[in-house]
Every structure is written in C-alpha cells, then in structure tokens.
Amino acid sequence: MKTLKIPEATIVRLSVYSRFLGTADRRGITTISSGDIADGVGVSPAQVRKDLAYFGEFGTRGVGYNVKDLHRHIMKILGLSAEWQVSLVGLGNLGLALAQYKGFRERGFKIRSIFDSDPAKVGTTVNDVVVEHIDNLEEVLAQQGAQNGAIAQIGIIAVPTPFAQSVADRLIKSGVKAILNFAPVVLSVPPEIELRNVDLAVHLEVLTFNLALHKS
Amino acid sequence: MKTLKIPEATIVRLSVYSRFLGTADRRGITTISSGDIADGVGVSPAQVRKDLAYFGEFGTRGVGYNVKDLHRHIMKILGLSAEWQVSLVGLGNLGLALAQYKGFRERGFKIRSIFDSDPAKVGTTVNDVVVEHIDNLEEVLAQQGAQNGAIAQIGIIAVPTPFAQSVADRLIKSGVKAILNFAPVVLSVPPEIELRNVDLAVHLEVLTFNLALHKS
DNA sequence: TTAAATTTGTGATATAATTAACTATGCAAT
DNA sequence: ATTGCATAGTTAATTATATCACAAATTTAA
C-alpha cells in the first residue's frame, strides 16, 4: 500500500466533509461541488479537492461529486466500514456523558464495554452496556477480542489523571491499538499505539490567548 | 503590539508546557531545562525553545528555566492572569460533565452561569451556580458583563446540534467574544469572534483512519 | 457542431512550521 | 583565571502544508 504521508489536518477535514455530506444526503442533495462543500465547512474549494486527491478521483469535471458516492468513499477512507470495538474506562461525569453521547452512535461508533472501580456503578446498565469492574478489564477485553477476530479495539480513558497511565498500560497489554485520552496528562505509549488527547482546558486557553491578543 | 503570527500549534503546546510546569512546581522542582520539558511532554527541546522564543527570553544559558517564573510567564501569555466569564449553555449529559469538570477549575476557569431549556433543571444548582432558563440568556449575560467591566466573556455550547447556531448568535449578540462549541456542526460567526470546535467523533475517526492504514 | 460555462484534478508556487546547527552565556571545577 | 561543560537563544535549512492557476473533461446553449 502506498501511503504518501497524509497530513493529519486532511484527515480531520475529511471527517468534517463526511459529516457534511451525510447531512446533504439526508436533505436529498445528489450532486455537490467542491465549492459547495467548501462553503459548508469553511475551507477553500482547492483545499477540498487537494484533500480528496490524496485518495483518488471521486468527481466528474464540469459536474461535481455524487453525494452518496463521495460520502461512502470518505467513510471507507476513514476506516468506518469496519466495526470497531470501543471500550470506555471511567464512568464519572465525563465518562457517563461519553457513554451516552449521541454523536458517537450517529457516526457508527458503539461502546461495547464500560469499566469503573466504583462498586455502586458496577452491574448497572448504561445504554444497554453492563458496567464491569475495572479489575476485570483484561478478562472482558480478551473475551471481546475473541468474539470479533482480528478487528482492532479502541479504548477511551476518562479516569482521574493519576490513574490514566496505568489504565493505558493495561489497555495496551490487552490488545487495544488506539486510545482516546481525556485525562489532562501526557501518556507514554509504544509508538505503534495510536494516541489522541482531548484536553478541554487547552481549548479554553487557546481562546483566552487569542482574546488577550486582540485586546492589546 | 507586534504580533508576528504565532502558530496555533505553539499555543496548544504552551498550554501543555504550562500544565507540566505546574506539576513540576508542586513536586518541588525549581529549575528545569528545555530538554526536561521536552521529555515530559513529548516534543523536541528545540521546539520548546522556539515556542518560548516567540514571547521573549525566559531562561538562563547553561542553567535552564526557573520553574515558577516560566510557569507564571506562560500563564500570562495564555491570558490566564485575567479572569474570564465563562457561560455554559446546555445541561445535558455533556453539559453537566463540563459544568463539573475539575480540569477547568484546576486551570483557573470558573463557570459563572449555566443555561438550559428544561424547566426541571432551571433553578437547580450545579457547582454553586443556579441554572437559568435559556430565555433569560441575554438578561443574565448583560448583568454578568456589567458586574465585571470590560472583561470578555466566553460561551460554551453543549446543546443539541439543531440549536447550536441560534445559541451562538444569541451569545454573540450578548457580547460573548469567544465560543467553545461541542455541537458537531459548523457554526458561522463573524470573523472577530474566536471559535473553537470540539468534535469528539472526529477524534475517533482520526484513530480509525490510522488503524486502517496500519492494517493494510 | 461549436462555443461558452462549469468544475475537477494537478503541477507549480508560496507560505508555514519544524528541525538542525550554531553561537553566546553562565556555572563549576581546578 | 582558565578550561570544560551545559544550555538558552537564534539563524539557517529542511520539510510540510496550503494556495494558486490552468489544462482536461463534461454539460448546456446556440
């Protein structure tokens, strides 16, 4: 497979295009131009075409793109044709919100297992998923993996900061290949593990930085 | 003020350095080198120095940086010496999680007002903040602004997608200068308004893209 | 049929960001 | 004092990303 180093920004934009195309499709739009997409998501038409060009030719010159087709193609590119096993660790306020987050389901992500250390939470059901004790993480993930052959597993970490690294270690040892980390701490993971950090305070700080600039 | 276009990536890293320095400070570390910081947050030492160089000289050659000093400087750069009025709109699962998120308070952000449309929630208290009805948004923000003179206000949008744009419009009309949007939709706002989007599904899709690549 | 209008795909260019290399400075040991 | 070592600050080189401009393809209208 030829992989000419795709910019991450391109992937993020593809994800946004995909969401936009889904909306357009539901509205009954069948054909769309790079300019339409660009207007819809706030980038330039050239950027849209360049992003798509990394992966092939999906449009018709003089016409545009077929909405359904392009949507399908991008979903495929993003790896959304496979089913991913998503596990959530930590059912505090944030964890609960993530477990019930509609945006995940809308984009095809279903959380398969949930772990927490609070005995009061273990055994309860969130969105049809029974909460497991975190002590059973390895066991449950092994089972889950066995059920689904080679499909890679994704872990979401929503535990308090001091526990995040050990949870990451255990997830990885259990075969998880990608981690979405909400704890505001820099995790150390092997290079082959995909890691993304979501630090909500960082976003606020980028805003305050920009505001502080404008005011002076 | 000279503002030589600071890369946004630099701001994000500064925020991470700042968090790291806070931890180091609490551990009693007084002096730190660019290499130490780099190791701690997973970037190169040159990157650390380059990022800081945009804003001045904060270290001592041959020695390193004073942890407390550098921390203070970065906080100042990020605009965290001012107090920001943060309002949260939407108290669903995600909104509630954000309202109680410790990470915000740890970094100095305090949510001053919370709005929701559900009568059952209005009047309840979350983290010492009384939930207001969203119909009163303009009124409450006007009061809040008046109390605090010229300090800019920040709005966090955690309402369902269909309502996000109108909430944004109302926030802006009420004087909010920066918006952190959690609704998975592209908002259109005037160019002078600072906008950041947090789309949780996008993060998962970047992970699946990378996993899909590695597997082929 | 031809011409005009549209819109993609892409090579060339420009811009931006990162990395590397170097210089200057300060400290510690002798 | 002098030398050696560590490390910040800075300039230059490299790499990555985004923009631009145009040729190629398709449709529509005359």
Written account of the structure:
Two copies of one chain form a homodimer. Chain A has helices spanning 8-26, 34-41, 45-53, 67-77, 93-99, 102-106, 137-147, 161-173, 200-215, and strands spanning 31-32, 59-60, 64-66, 85-89, 111-116, 125-126, 129-133, 153-157, 176-181, 194-197. By secondary structure, chain A is an alpha/beta fold. In chain A, strands 6-7-5-4-8-9-10 form a seven-stranded mixed beta sheet, sandwiched between helices. A three-stranded antiparallel beta sheet of chain A has the order 1-3-2. The first copy, chain A, is globular. Chain A starts with 7 loop residues before the first helix and ends with a helix. Chains A and B meet through helix 1, helix 5, helix 6, strand 9 and helix 9 of A and helix 1, helix 5, helix 6, strand 9 and helix 9 of B. The structure holds a DNA duplex (30 and 30 nucleotides).
List the helices and strands and how they pair.
2 copies of one chain form a homodimer.
Chain A: H1 8-26, E1 31-32, H2 34-41, H3 45-53, E2 59-60, E3 64-66, H4 67-77, E4 85-89, H5 93-99, H6 102-106, E5 111-116, E6 125-126, E7 129-133, H7 137-147, E8 153-157, H8 161-173, E9 176-181, E10 194-197, H9 200-215
Parallel strand pairs in A: 4-5, 4-8, 5-7, 8-9, 9-10
Antiparallel strand pairs in A: 1-3, 2-3, 6-7
Helix pairs in contact in A: 1-4, 2-3
The first copy, chain A, binds a DNA duplex (30 and 30 nucleotides) through residues 5, 7, 9-10, 33-35, 44-47, 49-50, 52-53, 57-65.
